[in-house]
Structure formats: C-alpha cells, structure tokens
Amino acid sequence: MIIVTGGAGFIGSGIVWKLNQLGEEKIIVVDHLGTTEKWKNLSPLSFSDYLEKDAFEAKIRTGSANEFGKIDGIVHMGACSATTEVDASYLARNNFEYSKLVAQFALKKKARLVYASSAATYGDGSNGFKDDEKNLAALRPLNMYGYSKQMFDVWCRKKGLLNRFAGVKFFNVYGPNEFHKGDMRSVVLKAFEQIRVAGHMSLFKSYRSDYADGEQLRDFIYVKDAVDMTLHLLEKRTASGIFNVGSGKPNSWNNLARAIFSALRIDPEIRYIEMPEKMRNKYQYYTCADISKLRKSGYKKPITPFADSVVEYIREYLLQGKRLGE
C-alpha cells in the first residue's frame, strides 16, 4: 500500500495518476478537499481509499492507522503551498508539525518516505541552489512558507532521518491539475487565461540593472517530469537526503511568454508592468536547480524540452479542459 498525502492536489494527483499508469491502485489518498474543485483531479484516478487530512491525522495519533496494513511507501505532498500566506502559526502547524507526525508514522511502519520540500527554502539564491544537507542551516527563505519547509528539512537532518528519507525541493512546476490553486497557479496557466481574454501577456518589470524586463530567470519543470523524479526516489530506497527537482536549465519569462503564444498560434504581445513595492525586496531574479545529485542516484530519463511541454500542456489539456487521466 502507498499513501499519498495531498493526493488530490496538483503534484499529488499527478503522483496517483502515474502510479495508476504503472499498474498500482493500492493507494490511500489523503487530502482536504474543502470547497475547491480539486476533487475533480481524483475523478479519473483509481485508489483504494480516501481520507480527509484530519481523519488521517487522528488515526495516526490514536494508533488506529494500523488498519491500513503494510505500508510500503508514503509520498507526503500535503501542505499549504501559498507563498503569500501570512499566518505563520498556521504554516508551522500545517507544514511542520503535521510533517513531523507523518515522518514518525513512516518510521513506525518502516515505510519509505518521500516528502515535499521547496526551492523557496533557497531564498534569494545568494547561498546557491545546491541540494547539500550540510548547507541547510545557512539558507534564508524569503517568506514563511519557505521557512516552514526549511524547518522540516532541518528537523529531519537533526534527527538523522535524511539517511533514510528523501526530501524533494520542487522548483517552478507547471502542468495539468493545477486549476484549483488560485493565485498559486503557474504563470503558464495564468498567462493562458489572460491571453485568451485580453490578447496580451503582462510581465513584471525588472528593478535590477543586470536583468532586462522579462529576462528574470526561473527553472521551470513540467509536472510529469517532477512526478517521475519523485517516484524514482520512492523506489530508490538507497537514495536518501535532499534532492532538487527541476529542469537544471533556467528560462526567462520572455521565453515562457513566447512559448505560450506559439502554442496558441498567436503573435506575441508582451506588456511590462510595475511590480508591487512589497514584492520587490523578496523577488527572486534567478533560480536554477542543480540536479546532478538526482542524476547520480540513477535517474536517467531526459527532461521534457521546455517549449514541447508548454505546447502539450496548452493544446492537450488547457484547450480541451482535461485533467490527467481523462
């Protein structure tokens, strides 16, 4: 049996979808569906059971989770992923305390745990983007979301758990099944919607002389690649520690815009707008995942070319209103 927390969410539902593709249906999905439409991500998928997060947590705390039987692996994607969340206490409970509980449960069940960290832990990148556990304490996230993820990374290291678990630092993930994420949806989806309505795409101006407008760089990774990397680590039990999950190649916002216009077969029209002042001191101008550690662990699949993945996402999913598995 495999447990996927956050299993109705963006990456979590992608994990369940890929497991189904591999013939695995003995899956327990854990999530908080609330009032969003992320339940639609589950509709095409196959799994053994669904539990609300609170019910799952209660079963862990009371010991009744033993009814699950043998647990081979836990993919812990469940978290508040809003980088704009200002309730630090909520993030500490939801992203840190809850993750500790899941980790302790994995230890008790002798199950492999792969959990979601985040590239947000790297902050402005001044300390680099190397997935080296020894550098964890030196990182300075720019927001509480990133810090809540770093708290768990550091806790796992202090407890010696990074010798048996794997934490994955996702960079800028985009692709099917992110409809429900509101402001946290990828720029690909937001731009797709804006272009369809207004005919143009808006990008933030640069406030640094070494970056032209729209030339700020991000490591964009297609969700199908992110899922493959995560499941590689679930299977490869000898690969433990922190791993970057990204493409290893940065692309500019301008390149992203051009790829979206190309997928829509529309001539590019990009407008540069002012960035809100409150964001300017916390804005990342460059991110790039060093994925050499993941490659050394045995991950050999090629990364989907950036433009190809944008075209697939837009033409095969967004334009057709489809989710993974449909």
Kindly describe this structure:
The protein is built from eleven helices and 13 strands. It has helices at residues 10-21, 39-42, 53-62, 88-109, 144-158, 187-198, 223-235, 253-263, 277-280, 292-296, 306-318, and strands at 2-5, 27-31, 49-52, 73-76, 112-116, 166-170, 172-174, 201-204, 217-218, 220-222, 241-245, 251-252, 270-273. The strands form four sheets. Strands 3-2-1-4-5-6-11 form a seven-stranded parallel beta sheet, sandwiched between helices. Strand 1 (2-5), helix 1 and strand 2 form a beta-alpha-beta unit. Helix 6 crosses helix 8. The longest helix has 22 residues, at 88-109.
Number of strands: 13
- Structure annotation, total helices: 11
Alpha-beta classification: alpha/beta
Average pLDDT level: 93
Q: What proportion strand?
A: 15-25%
The shape, in one word, is globular
Could you state the oligomeric state of the chains shown? single chain
Q: Assign a percent range to the helix content.
A: 25-40%
Order of helices and strands: EHEHEHEHEHEEHEEEHEEHEHHH
Which sheet architecture does the biggest sheet show? 7 strands, parallel
**Rounded Rg:** 19 Å
What's the end-to-end separation, in Å?
24 Å
Low-confidence stretches: none
Spatial order of strands in the largest sheet: 3-2-1-4-5-6-11
